[in-house]
């Protein structure tokens, strides 16, 4: 059975779509327009190679060696050397699922046509992706500028048939050449600039970031469900969720969360459980219950912000140098440069002006020409001006910074800094800080659920306390992860370290920011899973009373895999089962039909 196909065009990929490619259930392909852009960009590079112009990244060394020129017969070998030497990553390899994201994202960037790679190699990359043949990519070694060089080099190395590659049939790492041959795939063969085109960019940061933000959307919604359930079994009230309160502080996320929790707790009328106590004798709930819209709300708004920024990053050209066709720069004048297209009218005006200056004041009377030598000099000057006018037209160029090269009929190669990962690095540090707070406030609700002096329920939500420990250490696990998150949320991007002999003297540390963000999100999923488990167990002590239909559906889902806690057993299995329900979307999809009135 053929798989659905996601078409990559370099302009429209979303973090959710990229994260969805982890499954291996979707193939990828280029749009026709993307194929044409790739061919146009490659033509610019080929013409420069033919002209033997010296251009960074095409026929020079890299970094500090950018002043070293390489002979035409070694340009392919230059690119291969680049990949081999830059394959310097360490640490555990990315999973095949995450490598799928990395490869697909690099292909999407190449689809913009500003990298200079040939279409043949891009199509080979797509075939490897669709066959599930993923190179071994160590997770550590990038400083996030000049792009994610080490991990992307390992990605390219495997596609070249060197290094290691996951065999899609066994899931084991084998020699890349053997895996490619086994699956009838041809290794990529690098020409001028194609090695650099494979590795210059922020794709590791953005790929891992796309997973982090996609999972954050899901866990944030599930945190609202957990809050509603905890509020219900702790016999709280929804008064603090009244629309009038949130209308006068109209943050988008705050209003979404308040509406969502209010709808879960009182869709039409109070639940049987609430009617049994009606909040009599109480004044107001603790902050962890009452202020969820304000705390969860900013987390939701943070996730939306990061998702928008990453969407831009996924569809950005992040190479250096960058390739532009003559057509693309025809009407552009970049800041700091005067790039003039060959304009006959302007050239004619310039020619007339220069001639006029040479003969200014001479008039049309030739009787005054008495000095033959002076006349010869004037004629020679006129001939030189005419000859200059008749030369082949090139783009005008006034260089104000280094490393920009221009070709007349083909296009422009420009050096810039789009590879710098500061944008996604800062965003993912922000994401980690925002999402962490969901676990911080959840841990406080877990404390209220297991503490009999706060809940009015049996200690640690278990009968025969002392003989049974119940959820005692589950709360400790939540507390431990929340404390770890406090360290992990220290921003990686506030750090920088000079590399490449001070040529690359400021870096983003975005790779670490992305890995930390993923670890934080994973911890948050576990903490929310523990809260859901606690709320479901607390509900057992309120039976035969019923909660709302939505929360009863959550209880039923959890009980389909996790039995009520009648006596001590291995807790980790239960935690992992509910975490899986959060991760794969089952918990959210269970309550979503009940939230039709929610703006989310």
Automatic annotation (TrEMBL):
A UniProt-annotated Pfam family: Lyase_aromatic
CDD domains: PAL-HAL
Keyword Lyase: yes
Assigned keywords, A-Z: Lyase
GO molecular function, one term: ammonia-lyase activity
Highest taxon listed in the record's lineage: Eukaryota
Xref: InterPro entries: Aromatic_Lyase, Fumarase/histidase_N, L-Aspartase-like, Phe/His_NH3-lyase_AS
Homology family: Belongs to the PAL/histidase family.
Name assigned to this protein: Histidine ammonia-lyase
């Amino acid at each position: 059975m053929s798989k659905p196909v996601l078409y990559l065009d370099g302009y429209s990929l979303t973090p959710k779509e990229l994260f969805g490619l982890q499954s291996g259930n979707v193939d990828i392909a280029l749009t026709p327009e993307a194929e044409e852009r790739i061919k146009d960009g490659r033509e610019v590079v080929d013409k420069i190679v033919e002209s033997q112009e010296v251009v960074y990244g095409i026929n020079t060394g890299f970094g500090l060696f950018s002043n070293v020129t390489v002979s035409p017969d070694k340009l392919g070998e230059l690119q291969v050397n680049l990949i081999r030497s830059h394959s310097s990553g360490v640490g555990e390899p990315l999973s095949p699922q995450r490598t799928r994201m990395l490869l697909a994202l690099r292909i999407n960037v190449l689809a913009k046509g500003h990298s200079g790679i040939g279409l043949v190699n891009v199509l080979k990359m797509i075939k490897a992706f669709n066959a599930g043949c993923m190179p071994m990519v160590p997770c550590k070694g990038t400083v996030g500028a000049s792009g994610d060089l080490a991990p992307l080099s390992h990605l390219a190395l495997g596609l070249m048939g060197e290094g290691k590659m996951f065999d899609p049939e066994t899931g084991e790492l084998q020699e890349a050449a053997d895996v490619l041959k086994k699956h009838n795939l041809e290794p990529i063969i690098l020409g001028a600039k194609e090695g650099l085109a494979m590795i210059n960019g922020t794709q590791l940061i953005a790929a891992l970031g796309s997973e982090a933000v996609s999972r954050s959307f899901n866990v944030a919604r599930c945190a609202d469900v957990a809050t509603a359930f905890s509020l219900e079994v702790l016999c709280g009230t929804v008064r603090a969720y009244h629309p009038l309160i949130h209308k006068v502080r109209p943050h988008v996320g705050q209003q979404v969360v308040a509406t969502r929790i209010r709808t879960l707790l009182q869709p039409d009328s109070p639940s049987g459980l609430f009617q049994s106590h009606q909040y009599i004798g109480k004044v107001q709930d603790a902050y962890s219950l009452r202020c969820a819209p304000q705390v969860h709300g900013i987390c939701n708004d943070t996730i939306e912000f990061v998702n928008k920024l990453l969407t831009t990053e996924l569809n950005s050209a992040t190479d250096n140098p960058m390739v532009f066709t003559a057509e693309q720069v025809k009407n552009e004048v970049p800041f700091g440069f005067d790039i003039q297209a060959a304009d006959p009218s302007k050239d004619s005006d310039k020619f007339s002006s220069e001639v006029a200056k040479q003969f200014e004041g001479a008039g049309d009377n030739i009787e005054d020409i008495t000095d033959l030598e002076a006349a010869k000099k004037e004629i020679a000057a006129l001939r030189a001006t005419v000859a200059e006018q008749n030369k082949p037209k090139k783009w005008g160029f006034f260089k104000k910074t280094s490393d920009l090269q221009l070709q007349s009929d083909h296009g422009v190669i420009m050096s810039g800094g789009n590879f710098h990962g500061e944008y996604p690095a800062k965003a993912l540090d922000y994401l980690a800080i925002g999402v962490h707070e969901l676990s911080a406030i959840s841990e406080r609700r877990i404390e209220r659920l297991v503490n009999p002096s706060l809940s009015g329920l049996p200690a640690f939500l278990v009968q025969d306390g002392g003989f049974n420990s119940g959820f005692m250490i589950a709360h400790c696990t939540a507390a431990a992860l929340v404390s770890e998150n406090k360290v992990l949320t220290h921003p990686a991007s506030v750090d920088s370290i000079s590399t490449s002999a001070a040529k690359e003297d400021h870096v983003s540390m975005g790779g670490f920011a992305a890995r930390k963000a993923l670890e934080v999100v994973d911890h948050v999923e576990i903490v929310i899973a523990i809260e859901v488990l606690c709320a479901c167990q607390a509900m057992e002590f309120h039976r035969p009373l019923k909660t709302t239909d939505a929360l009863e559906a959550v209880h039923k889902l959890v009980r389909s895999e996790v039995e009520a806690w009648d006596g001590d057993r291995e807790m980790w299995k239960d935690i992992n089962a509910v975490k899986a329900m959060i991760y794969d979307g089952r918990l959210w999809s269970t309550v979503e039909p009940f939230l039709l009135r929610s703006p989310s």
